[in-house]
Amino acid sequence: MSELQPKIDQVRTILANAARDYAPVIFANSLGAEDMVLTDLINKYQPDIEMFSLDTGRLPQETYDLMQEVRAYYSVPLQIFFPDARRIEEYVAQNGVNGFYDSVELRKSCCHIRKVEPLRRALSGKRAWITGMRHEQALTRGVLQVSAFDVDNGLQKFNPLLDWSNAEVWEYLKQYEVPYNKLHDRFYPSIGCAPCTRAITPGEDIRSGRWWWEDTQNKECGLHVNKITPIKQV
């Protein structure tokens, strides 16, 4: 038996309980390494959980390639949500195409238009959502729970891989031959929009390549906030 099997079984239980107690449930697939683990597990064991991804309009080509690969490889459809074109046009007219470099406020405004608003549309009508967030990923994620009520979005939130290590994530991907973003092989551990993501060097924090021109404490885009109420571990 694989050394990962106990953790795989735990994730299966979390997914099954979420689908049983909070249907309809949807998985927010960022197409990162962790989310590809969940993509594989949901397709194998809990295909009644829906799946979506956000196309911000500024993603790397490698992410689009993986979107297409997921579509061909897995049976659970990957729904794609886009930002409102008029909001993007207004932002660019006021701030320029790369105005997000000018201040944290402008960067978060860009993230809100390209990510947060489409996320809310994706979550509309759902009772729970699933993410691939882990404690190791960032200081801002150290207080997360496996299961908690997401006050900001008004539904339950599950983080089944919360206590997985980066090594365990990659062990799963390799062992089960799961497709992944090829930028990971070029030292991009965390991948977002192309102009806001860079490769990292050995010893850097795994989120240091995201919004690298900002302080560490600001490195969230608004999709995941800490206004959550723990309910129970499952």
From TrEMBL:
SUPFAM superfamilies in alphabetical order: Adenine nucleotide alpha hydrolases-like
Xref: Gene3D superfamilies: HUPs
Catalysed reaction, written as an equation: [thioredoxin]-disulfide + sulfite + AMP + 2 H(+) = adenosine 5'-phosphosulfate + [thioredoxin]-dithiol
Keyword S-adenosyl-L-methionine listed: no
This protein's pathway: Sulfur metabolism; hydrogen sulfide biosynthesis; sulfite from sulfate
Predominant cellular place of this UniProt entry's protein: cytoplasm
Cofactor(s) required, per the database record: [4Fe-4S] cluster
Alphabetized InterPro entries for the sequence: APS_reductase (IPR011798), PAPS/APS_Rdtase (IPR004511), PAPS_reduct_dom (IPR002500), Rossmann-like_a/b/a_fold (IPR014729)
Active site: 221 (nucleophile)
Cofactor note: Binds 1 [4Fe-4S] cluster per subunit.
Keywords: Cytoplasm, Iron, Iron-sulfur, Metal-binding, Oxidoreductase
Gene Ontology MF term list: adenylyl-sulfate reductase (thioredoxin) activity
Domain spans labelled Phosphoadenosine phosphosulphate reductase: 26-199
Known EC number: 1.8.4.10
Residues reported to bind [4Fe-4S] cluster: 110-111, 193, 196
Subcellular location: Cytoplasm
Family (UniProt): Belongs to the PAPS reductase family. CysH subfamily.
Described purpose of this protein according to its UniProt entry: Catalyzes the formation of sulfite from adenosine 5'-phosphosulfate (APS) using thioredoxin as an electron donor.
Protein's UniProt name: Adenosine 5'-phosphosulfate reductase
Taxonomy of the source species: Bacteria, Pseudomonadati, Pseudomonadota, Betaproteobacteria, Nitrosomonadales
Gene name of this polypeptide: cysH
